[in-house]
Specification:
22 strands; globular; 477 residues; 22% strand
């Protein structure tokens, strides 16, 4: 095993670089070996971060919006100027091949800037002869941001951009599996803001619960699994912290019989296997009409056999490893159980023996109640499910505790739109996959979340309404 240098990347607390006595190893999932150390924040360092953010809040809240936006734009430009360095680091810790890693890092810089195109309105609910009632949207205070490992950079920006733009200060925690790129971004952009406005701390499994229990936070914005989301909500209830929870999904794609299978197969394939299936909104159940089932199944299997899964740092890898050992074991367990129960598994190209690799795997028409259909695999496992009519497929697609996204594929846009309206999810794509924009809310239904991110509604989640009744004359004063 390679010798690890002391933590190369610093946390950002009160505008300064901070290291720690303890460290956590960061593993390259393509090798299964640690390659760097990240700081492990102590309870005192969390305290310092919250205190710094608390001190910085009044000044940042009162900073004119134009100046707050300018700071975010500068931060965006700095990230954009460091895309090659950040991309290489991203691939090493997250596993995703270079092209996809670059897309996330440069997309995050774009997102940060695009968020500044939004404006926080002042709503006027009455403007009569006697009075004017204005509803302002004011910041909450110190926000706690918690991020998962599958899209570590973009999802961090989804918290940094709206929290800071709305006038809050932030303490952000990346996943222990993917802390480095976020810490490095902190180093690069910390001077864009007054000290204490943006704090980034890393740590192990204890840090998240310590943060959500901390009384100094006015709000928690959390992205991760539904199980952890429930724990976050429970803890937040104790002192009524505001929460936004972006959680798991078991997203259905419905493929109608009128599609051109050859024309769309590749899009459908990418919509299921992007980031090796580790995306909250990839297709996790593909319902295919019986008339085209065999043809599309064979085409998807062919694509799986032709698609290279390997070390993301090596040219030619389309998809990388599973990001961490725990998730690797979970997906292996799911596949072993599916195999043991006699399901038909159609495997893709062979994968490297070293590292956390799993072949892209299609499951041929398993029963709806099999684990591989019911659970969010969060890996390269795609169950294909045969259906005969629209009412049946809508019922089956909605028969899940989750409600994040869904997709409908058909030449008949009117019918596809009618189906889209019947899906119990926060987002539905028609003839496309995995789309999101800085101006459109992403909001999970059912067990997929609470609240929303992005767009004006997402931005307003970092504010509270404050209604001011203003008389037209000062007669009574
Ligand atoms: P996870 O819930 O294990 O961890 C997410 C984050 O929470 C990590 O930073 C972790 O350290 C922290 N954490 C763990 N336990 C905690 C606790 N008790 N209190 C506070 N924080 C705690 O999730 P993961 O495995 O990192 O991510 C995968 C999951 O995230 C999947 O279910 C996926 O669908 C979901 N996800 C959802 C979205 C969305 O927008 N809805 C986006 C990406 C990922």
């Amino acid at each position: 095993m390679a010798t690890l240098a002391p933590a190369e990347f610093s946390m950002t607390i009160d505008g300064k670089a901070v290291t720690s006595a303890k460290t956590i190893p960061v593993i390259n999932p393509a090798t299964g070996e640690p390659f760097a150390l990240a700081p492990e924040a102590s309870a005192d360092q969390l305290e310092s971060a919250v205190e710094a953010a608390t001190r910085a809040f009044p000044g940042w809240r009162d900073t004119p919006m134009a100046e707050r936006k300018a700071a975010l734009i500068t931060a965006s430009d700095i990230i954009a100027a460091h895309v090659p360095e950040l991309t290489a680091l991203f691939t090493r810790e997250q596993g995703r091949p270079t092209e996809g890693a670059r897309a996330e890092v440069s997309g995050a810089a774009m997102w940060l800037k695009a968020t500044t195109l939004l404006d926080i309105p002042v709503d006027v609910t009455e403007d009569s002869e006697t009075r004017r009632i204005e509803v302002h949207h004011v910041p909450l205070g110190v926000v706690c941001g918690i991020v998962p490992w599958n899209f570590p950079v973009l999802l961090a920006i989804w918290k940094i951009a709206p929290a800071l733009m709305a006038g809050n200060t932030l303490v952000l925690k990346p996943s222990p599996f993917t802390p480095l790129t976020t810490l490095r971004i902190g180093e690069l952009i910390r001077d864009c803001f007054p000290a204490g406005v943006l704090n980034i701390i890393s740590g192990g499994d204890e840090l998240g619960p310590m943060m959500t229990a901390h009384k100094g936070f006015a709000k928690i914005t959390f992205t991760g699994s539904t199980a952890t989301g429930r724990r976050v909500m429970e803890t937040a209830a104790k002192d009524l912290k505001r929460i936004t929870l972006e959680l798991g999904g078991n997203d259905a794609a419905i493929i109608m019989p009128d599609v051109d299978v050859d024309a769309i197969a590749s899009e459908l394939f990418q919509g299921a296997f992007h980031n090796t299936g580790q995306v909250c909104v990839v297709t996790k159940r593909m319902f295919i009409h019986e008339d085209i089932y065999d043809q599309l199944r064979d085409r998807l299997h062919q694509l799986a056999k032709e698609t290279a899964v390997g070390d993301g740092a090596q040219q030619g890898s389309t998809y990388g490893p599973i990001q961490n050992a725990i998730q690797f074991a979970r997906v292996q367990d799911l596949l072993a159980e599916a195999r043991a129960s006699g399901l038909t598994m159609l495997e893709g190209a062979p994968v490297p023996k070293r590292g956390y690799f799993i072949p892209l795997t299609i499951v041929d028409n398993p029963p709806d109640n099999s684990r591989v259909v019911v659970e969010e695999a969060f890996g390269p496992v795609l169950p294909l499910l045969k259906f005969a009519d629209v009412d049946e497929v809508v019922r089956r697609a909605n028969d899940t505790e989750y409600g994040l996204s869904g997709a409908v594929w058909s030449k008949d846009i009117e019918q596809a739109t009618a189906i889209a309206h019947r899906l119990d999810t926060g987002t539905v794509w028609i003839n496309q996959n995995l789309q999101s924009t800085p101006f459109t809310p992403l909001a999970g239904a059912k067990q997929s979340g609470f609240g929303q991110e992005n767009g004006l509604p997402g931005l307003l989640e970092f504010t509270r309404p404050k209604s001011i009744y203003i008389p037209k004359s000062g007669a009574l004063a």
